[in-house]
Amino acid sequence: MDFLDYAFMQRALLAAVLVGITAPAVGIYLVQRRQALMGDGIGHVAMTGVGLGFLLSASPVWMATAVSVLGAILMELIRWYGRTRGDIALAMLFYGGMAGGVMFINLAPTGSNANLTSYLFGSLSTVSEEDVTSICLLAAFVVVVTLGLRRQLFAVSQDEEFARVTGLPVRALNLLTAVTAAVTVTVAMRVVGLLLVSALMVVPVAAAQQLTRSFAATFAVAVAIGVSVTIGGTVTSYYQDVPPGATIVLLTIGAFIVMTALAAPLARRRARALAAAQTAGDPGECTIPATREAGDGVGV
Amino acid sequence: MDAKAEPVISLRGVRAELGSRPVLRGIDLTVHRGEVVALLGANGSGKSTAVRSVIGQVPIGAGEIELFGAPHRRFGDWARVGYVPQRTTAAGGVPATVTEIVTSGRLSRARFGVLRKADHAAVRRALELVGMADRAKDSVDALSGGQHQRVLIARALAAEPELLIMDEPMAGVDLASQEVLAQTLRTQVAGGATVLLVLHELGPLEPLIDRAVVLRDGCVTHDGPPPRAVGQHALPGHDHVHPHAPAGAEPIRTGLLS
Lengths: 300, 258
What we know:
The complex is a heterodimer of chains A (about 300) and B (about 260). Chain A has about 300 residues and is mostly helical. In chain A, about 75% of the residues lie in helices and about 0% in strands. Chain A is built from twelve helices and no strands. The radius of gyration of chain A is 24 Å and the shape is globular. Chain B has a domain at about 5-90 and about 160-235: Rossmann fold (3-Layer(aba) Sandwich). Chain B has a six-stranded mixed sheet with strand order 6-7-8-3-9-10, with helices on both faces. In chain B, strands 2-1-4-5 form a four-stranded antiparallel sheet, with helices on one face.
C-alpha cells in the first residue's frame, strides 16, 4: 500500500472514487430512458469548454462544466422541440463541440494538442489540489440530485408521459438530469477522459442489470462496480505504468463479461424456482391423451 | 347542484391537429361523476387523441376542456386523475420491480417524493386490486402481456384517483387478465369512480359500460347506450351499421378486420 504515501496518488484515488460513484449514478437514468450515448455527446461538447479554458487562461474544469451544461440543456431543448431532424441537430452539436475544442486550444498561447490529449483520455497523475476541490463540489451536487430525487427521476425516466399526467415537473426534471450528466462528465474528465467517460456511465449499469431484478439493486451494484474499477484501474496504473483511463474502461468491460457469465446459471435457477412455485398451484405441463380419435373429431 | 350530475370531464368543440392533419374536428364529450364511458372507433378515428387531449398531452387548436369543473389550463390536482397509457410493456431500459413501477404512480400524492406508511399501504392495495400482490418483488421483465397491463393499471390506482382514464387497456391481454381487469374496474365503479376508456371493441367490459361514444374521422357519430351486437354482428371484424347514422353513410367500422 506504499502508493498511499504519495500526495498525487491520494488525490488521484479520491478523484477516481468520486467518479466511480457519480458516473453510474447518473448513467442509470440515461440507460433507463434509452439515451445511453448522451454522456458521449456531452463529452464532445465539453471539449470546447476545455479549449476555451486554455484560450481565456481560465480553469479548464470550470469552463468545461459551463460549456457542457449549456450543451446538455441545448440537447434537451432540441429533444423537446425538434421532432423531425433532432438527430441531425445533435450530430452538429457533437462535432461542432469537438472541432471547437481543437480550434480553441490551438489558438491559445499555452495550449497544444498534448494538453488536449490529457483531457481526452484522462491524466490522473496531474490532478491538482484545485482540481480535487472542484471535483468534490461537483460530485456532491451529483450525489444529492441522483439520490435525493431518485423517485421522481425514476418515474420520469420510466414513462415520461405518465409522469407528466401525475403532475411531476417533467421538463424541469429532464433539464436537471441533463445538467447533472454534464456535471458528471466534467467530474470524470480528469480521470477517464472525455472520450471514455460515457463508458463509465453506461457499462457498470449494463453489467449490474445482468444480475439484478430491481432498480434499487441495479443502482447499488452499478455504483459498487464503478468504485471497484476506478480504484482498481488507478492502482494498476501506478504499478504497471499503463494509462489509467483506458485501464478503468477495460476493467469495466471485464466486469460486464464476468456478470454476464454469472447471469446464465442464475437465470436458470430463478426459472426453476418460478416453475416450482407455479406447479404447486396447477398441473403445469400439458396432458396429452394417450389415444386419439379419428381426425380428433374434426369435420371437413 | 346534484353531485351526480356534475361533469368530471367536459369537452366542447375541441379541435386538434397532429402535424397538419386534423385529427379532432369539433368534439363534444361530457362524462358525469360515476359514469363509465367507452370511446369507440376504428384506428385513426381520433379516440386516442381525444383522451390524450383531456390529460393535456395533445395541444388543442380550438374549443374548451374542463376537468372537475376547472378550465384545463388551471387544473393542477392531477392526483385525482389515474391514467393508463396505451403500452404493451411497463419495462424501461433498467430492470425494475412491480412495486417500484406502481410506487411511481403514488408520487402525485407524496410531497417532494417522500413516501409515508399510508403511501406504501396504498401501493400494496393497488397491487392486491389487480391480483399482483404475490408478484410485488418480481422484475416486470418476467411478466406476461396481461400482467404488464395489470401493473400499469395498479400504477394508476396507487394514487386512489376519482377519475380513471384508460387507453385500450384490453389490447394484447390474455383472457384470465381480462377477467381480472373487468373485476378491478367493477370494484372501482362500485366505489364511485368515474371512468373514461378507449376501446377497440366492448368485449368483457360491456356490462359495465353506461354510455358509448363512437368517433369517426374526428367527429362524434354516436353518443348513447352502447351498441349491443348480437349473433354474427358480435363477431370481431363485423362492420357495425348504426341506426343513428344518416342514410347512405359509411358503416362505422369498429371491427378488428376493417
